[in-house]
């Protein structure tokens, strides 16, 4: 069907459509640059660290004060309240990583903004998951014992030493991760009676108000639970990546039905208008409608999908049920009540072959026990570990434009965007003061 098959008005309309479409593409190019599920995603834009750089910088500055053995400021922490009155236990399992350790950032960024009361409500324990803990570059750092409540090694927890040594020798990181995660979780469960257990990997950074936000969110979750809005729950996610929140292939029937509906609506509207309004008869000819319904509209639908789901439906701020597609175990707050069953399941899964990843085991337990999983949006934590030994590589070197990044693209775009405004406000306050 040649373009000059159409009359002047029709050609005008089709040309306008082409121009409009072109502009829509340009808009998508900018609007979807940070949506990892979009065709228009640009890694240099999406993975650009902003707020997390600021947090790393300021929290390490805070920590450096505790890094001198001579002049340690009195710690406004611990022993203010007895250990059995803790609100949350923060358990961090740390291993040796290639290139760089981020344990200092993790510990510093969860502590640097806390008031003395908030700090006293937390127990922070770090498990050095190495048979020889002194191999870990941070093990004998001065700041460690100055800010952390419990520095743990395999000797302090009930670790299967022989098995672990074997796994280290065989470099079986997957199975060792399962054991380490269980030991870290168990240690928090045993050593405190905190109702919330926050398990962090050793390469995350927290936003400034993570504690208030998280505690408010968990109260909300408990309210929902009391009113039966949700089922019993296993964890509240403090970190998620948008990467897996795109269009889901299992929803294709829904997407297809909507598309067919839209095309049919368009065709019906065209034919109806043609019948009712005489003046349109010369424009809405059969061939013209054919082009509109089977070419122009499908192209728009395609563009809609290419732009990405998160672009169209960004997650609202607040707490959400996220029983599917929530990725990664970087930062999870567990409900103490459901931890024993999870620990048991971990122990069982350690011997199952093929070995599952930590987050898969947690998801499977939630599925078995029919527990809800929730997430706070935007993420309270960012994953800043650039590399890990989980990647099977011969050698490690810095790659890409940024030093601060999430390995495998495990990164929260929302984290970088959400708190930037706080940052601007703070700078303005600094400026005016
Ligand atoms: C603490 O001091 C050690 C040794 O001087 C140094 O390597 C490390 O980077 C310091 N850490 C922080 C957080 O200041
Ligand atoms: C940590 O231990 C190593 C090896 O024993 C030593 O060289 C280093 O000075 C120690 N660092 C600190 C901060 O104590």
Short note summarizing the structure:
This protein has 16 helices and 10 strands. The chain is α/β, with parallel strands linked by helices.
Which key features would you list for this structure?
433 residues, alpha/beta, Spore Coat Polysaccharide Biosynthesis Protein SpsA, Chain A, 2 domains, two-stranded antiparallel ribbon, 16 helices, binds 2-acetamido-2-deoxy-beta-D-glucopyranose
List the helices and strands and how they pair.
Blueprint: H1 8-31, H2 43-46, H3 51-64, E1 88-94, H4 103-111, H5 116-120, E2 122-128, H6 142-147, E3 150-153, H7 161-170, H8 173-191, E4 196-201, E5 204-206, H9 210-226, E6 233-237, H10 252-276, H11 286-307, H12 309-312, E7 318-321, E8 331-335, H13 339-349, H14 358-368, E9 372-377, E10 381-383, H15 413-418, H16 420-432
Parallel strand pairs: 1-2, 1-4, 2-3, 6-9
Antiparallel strand pairs: 4-8, 5-10, 6-8, 7-9
Helix pairs in contact: 1-11, 3-4, 8-13, 10-11, 13-14
Bound molecules: 2-acetamido-2-deoxy-beta-D-glucopyranose (2 copies).
